[in-house]
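Students often ask why we bother encoding 3D structure as a string. The short answer is that it lets us treat folding as translation between two languages. Here is a chain of 215 residues written in the first language.
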Amino acid sequence: MSRRGRRGRRAGGAALAAGACAGGAYAVYRRRTRAVAADPVRNLTGAPFPLGRVSRRRGAGIGSARLLDPRWEPPLLRAAARWEPGPPRPGLRRALAYAWASPVTLVGLLVGATTRVRPEPRDGVLVFARAGGLAGAVLRRTRYDAVTFGHVVVARGVPSPSLMAHELIHTRHAERLGPLTAPVHLGLLAVYGYARHPLERAARRAARRALGAPV
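And here it is in the second language, the structure alphabet:
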């Protein structure tokens, strides 16, 4: 067989393998989608009506997230959905927590530098409120109220007490996870999506508690 023929066979085999992988991935996705649709819903958003499905509307944002408690969720991640650690004690523990979360905080400072606003300290973090610039444009485009990087919060407006309670849970997570914050959060996001993300559900519980709503 000529070299050109061998290359053709290899390309054909690679295309067949890629097609099989894509078909398998789509089948898994469809199966999980049907399983999620059948799961009971726990509405933790404070909406005045029951929510039966995860919103597929583009840019739904943090305010309209529908938080599910799927039956197929592993116990460890279900426990993570209730993980609301408190702030570290003053002294050495707090210093170590700030140092451990500092790589994530540095990213937040770089993002905050694009907002064209001066940060203000609040509840132990730096808040870039009424963010403009690139970061503000991204928040408005995605309709997210705020985003947290370690001890930095970037917000579209002035964060309400419930929103700060939400974002401070993410700060507490960063104090425990440190440089692992981004891999853990993005990994769970890829598997669960935003609405079912265990750490987002934990933050939503804190926000509802700040509002005096049942959790």
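Translate back mentally: The longest strand covers residues 125-128. Keep this in mind for the problem set.
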